[in-house]
Write a structure and sequence with these properties.
mainly beta; Lipovitellin-phosvitin complex, beta-sheet shell regions; eleven-stranded antiparallel sheet; three-stranded mixed sheet; 9% helix; globular
Length: 316
C-alpha cells in the first residue's frame, strides 16, 4: 500500500514547516470508533428504454459497527500490539425482493469477535494474520448449500474490510514519514471498493495535507483525498472467499460487470499531538455496466453506486 509520493509544485518546505504524522497509543487507554458504510444503488435495467426511468430499481446497503482498540503492548519507536473488539454490528438493506434484505448478513457474525494485530508508528499494520482469519470466517458464513453447489448470499464483508484493513492508510502511505509532511504536499495510495456484487476493484487515491488547524484540543491535520478507478487491485489484499460458487439475488443473476468510471473525494481529521484519527469521510460514485444471462432477453443494465464511508472516534 506504499506507493511513490509526489509533491505539489512550489517552494520546498523547511523542516519547521513540516509535521510528523504518527499513529500513537497510550497504555491502558481504549479508543472506540464508529464505522458506517452505506451505498445507494440505482439499477437501470435498460437505460435506452422509453419512457426514461420506467425500468429503474433502487436499493441500499448499510452497515454500522463500533469497534474498540485496546493496546496490549506499546512501543512508540517500534511495533505495538493492539486488541480490537467488535462491540456492535447493525445492518440494514432495502429494495431486495422476497425478503432478502431481512436475512442475517455474514458480517453480523463479527459482533463480539476479538482479534489482535501489530502496527508500527506509521500506522502500517505489519501483522494482520488474525484480522485476515476473521475476514475469511465472515466470508465462509456468507455461503449456504444448494442443489447446484455452493451459493453465496449477499454480504457486506467487503465493507468490513474497507473499514479495518485501511484504517490508517492516509498516514501509513506517506513514503518518507520521518521527514514530516508540509501543507500542500500530495502523496498516493490505493483503497478498496466494496460493492454489492463480487468484484475485486481498487481506487487510486491522492492525499493532500490541506491545513494544520489549531483547536482547543490541539493541532489537527486536515487531509483531503480524491479518488479514481485503479487499473487493478493489489494481490496481497485479503480475499474473503474463493473457489467456485453461485451468487444469489439480483447481482448473481446479472454478470460480466464492467466498471465504466469511478470518481469521488474524502476528508480526514487527524490529531497530530495525540497521534490518532479523529474522523474521516469518503464519498464516491461508481458506474457499472452489466449483462443479462443468455435467455433471449434484450436489455443493457447499468448500475450506479453512490458509496459513503465514515469513521468517527467516540469520546469516553
Amino acid at each position: 500500500m506504499l506507493l511513490a509520493s509526489c509533491h505539489a509544485p512550489g517552494p520546498k518546505a523547511s523542516p519547521a514547516d513540516r509535521v510528523l504524522l504518527t499513529v500513537d497509543f497510550e497504555p491502558g487507554r481504549t479508543l472506540r470508533y464508529r464505522f458506517v458504510s452505506y451505498r445507494d444503488i440505482i439499477l437501470d435495467w435498460d437505460p435506452n428504454a422509453a419512457p426514461a426511468g420506467s425500468k429503474v430499481q433502487e436499493l441500499s446497503d448499510r452497515v454500522e459497527m463500533v469497534i474498540a482498540y485496546t493496546p496490549e503492548a506499546v512501543d512508540p519507536y517500534g511495533v505495538s500490539t493492539i486488541r480490537a473488539t467488535c462491540e456492535s454490528v447493525q445492518i440494514k438493506r432495502t429494495g431486495r425482493p422476497s425478503g432478502r434484505g431481512a436475512r442475517r448478513d455474514a458480517v453480523n457474525n463479527a459482533q463480539g469477535e476479538t482479534f489482535t494485530f501489530k502496527v508500527d508508528p506509521r500506522g502500517k499494520i505489519v501483522d494482520a494474520s488474525q484480522l485476515d482469519a476473521l475476514i475469511k470466517k465472515l466470508g465462509a458464513a456468507a455461503f449456504r448449500s444448494g442443489p447446484g453447489g455452493r451459493i453465496k448470499e449477499p454480504d457486506l464483508v467487503g465493507d468490513f474490510i474497507a473499514c479495518q484493513w485501511f484504517l490508517w492508510d492516509a498516514v501509513s502511505s506517506i513514503e518518507h514519514p520521518a521527514t514530516g509532511v508540509a501543507v500542500g504536499q500530495n502523496w498516493r495510495s490505493q483503497l478498496s471498493v466494496p460493492a454489492p456484487m463480487v468484484m475485486r476493484k481498487a481506487r487510486d487515491v491522492t492525499y493532500r495535507l490541506d491545513e494544520i488547524r489549531q483547536t482547543d484540543a490541539g493541532r489537527r491535520a486536515i487531509i483531503a483525498s480524491t479518488f479514481s478507478l485503479a487499473e487493478k487491485a493489489p494481490s496481497d489484499w485479503p480475499i474473503p472467499y474463493a473457489g467456485r460458487f453461485q451468487m444469489s439475488g439480483t447481482f448473481g443473476f446479472l454478470g460480466a460487470y464492467r466498471v465504466l468510471g469511478l470518481e469521488g473525494a474524502g476528508r480526514e481529521q487527524f490529531d497530530i499531538d495525540a497521534g490518532r484519527l479523529e474522523a474521516a469521510e469518503q464519498e464516491y460514485t461508481v458506474r457499472v455496466k452489466a449483462s443479462l444471462p443468455p435467455m433471449g432477453l434484450r436489455a443493457n443494465p447499468h448500475i450506479t453506486i453512490k458509496q459513503t464511508l465514515t469513521i468517527a472516534r467516540l469520546t469516553p
